[in-house]
């Protein structure tokens, strides 16, 4: 399932929200390619932190 389906949003708006988050955190969270996205080292750290917060 994609973020656009889960949040009933467009890919453009999800991309905009993620860019805003990166700006507020002061770093890049994703490597963006034509095939999709992959977490950066900083993104991995944030993911683990958020994952623990929800478990």
The ordered H/E elements are: HHEEH
- Shape estimate: globular
Individual helix count: 3
Q: β content, as a range?
A: 5-15%
Account of the protein in words:
This protein is of the alpha+beta class. It contains 3 helices and 2 strands, in the order H-H-E-E-H. It is globular, with a radius of gyration of 12 Å.
Summed up:
By secondary structure, the protein is an alpha+beta fold.
Task: Based on the model shown, name its key terms.
about 55 residues; alpha+beta; two-stranded antiparallel sheet; 3 helices
Question: What secondary-structure arrangement, pairings included, does this model have?
Answer:
Blueprint (H helix, E strand, L loop, with lengths): L2 H4 L4 H15 L4 E4 L2 E4 L1 H14 L1
Antiparallel strand pairs: 1-2
């Amino acid at each position: 399932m994609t973020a656009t389906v889960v949040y009933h949003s467009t890919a453009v708006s999800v991309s905009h929200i993620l860019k805003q988050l990166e700006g507020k955190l002061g770093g890049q969270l994703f490597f963006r390619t034509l095939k999709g996205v992959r977490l950066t080292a900083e993104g991995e750290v944030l993911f683990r932190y958020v994952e623990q917060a929800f478990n």
